[in-house]
């Protein structure tokens, strides 16, 4: 008797082999399970239909624009150039603190804190940006 786990295992193995991720499964499950035979028939039908679809060629080669954006992002991460403005603001603030008696002493630690956050932002980049090291993006 076949269980749901057997069906799921056999189907995953077959899909992995279709995708080229593994060798063809040697499981005899498909010959004994009516549910999996129907699933296999539907999968083969869908595969034939998808392979028969014509895909339009791209009208414009977008790689140049994408590559430019990637290079632009890499150039922005130049650490010394990115930190000079932040360090300049920190030194100017400290100089201002030393030469003048600034009111509201509670504000004194805020600029160094903001500078530290700016440095972290420059070092780590945008935390919401998608980071990738996909080989498809490299020349």
Structure description:
- The protein is built from six helices and no strands.
- The longest helix has 21 residues, at 79-99.
- The two termini are 52 Å apart.
- The mean pLDDT is 77.
- By secondary structure, it is mainly α.
- It has helices spanning 4-18, 29-32, 34-51, 63-76, 79-99, 110-124.
- It has two domains: 4-51, no CATH class; 63-129.
Number-wise, the strands total 0
What's the pLDDT, averaged over the residues?
77
**Morphology call:** elongated
Write the element-wise H/E pattern from the N-terminal end onward: HHHHHH
Strand content is under 5%
The largest sheet, given as strand count, sense and whether it forms a barrel, is: none
Which structural traits does this protein have?
single chain; 139 residues; mainly alpha; 2 domains; 6 helices
Summarize the structure.
This protein has helices at residues 4-18, 29-32, 34-51, 63-76, 79-99, 110-124. With 139 residues, the protein is mainly α.
SSE inventory with pairings:
Blueprint: H1 4-18, H2 29-32, H3 34-51, H4 63-76, H5 79-99, H6 110-124
């Amino acid at each position: 008797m076949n269980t749901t786990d057997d069906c799921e295992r056999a189907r995953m193995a077959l899909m992995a082999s279709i995708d080229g991720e593994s060798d063809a499964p040697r499981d005899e499950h498909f010959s004994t399970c009516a549910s999996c035979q129907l699933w296999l028939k539907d999968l083969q039908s869908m595969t034939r239909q998808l392979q028969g679809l014509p895909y339009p060629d791209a009208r414009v080669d977008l790689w140049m624009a994408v590559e430019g954006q990637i290079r632009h992002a890499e150039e922005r991460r130049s650490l010394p150039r990115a930190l000079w403005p932040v360090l300049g603001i920190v030194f100017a603030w400290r100089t201002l603190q030393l030469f003048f008696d600034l009111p509201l002493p509670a504000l004194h630690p805020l600029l160094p804190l903001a500078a530290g956050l700016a440095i972290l932002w420059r070092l780590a980049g945008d935390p919401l940006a998608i980071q990738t090291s996909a080989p498809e993006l490299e020349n």
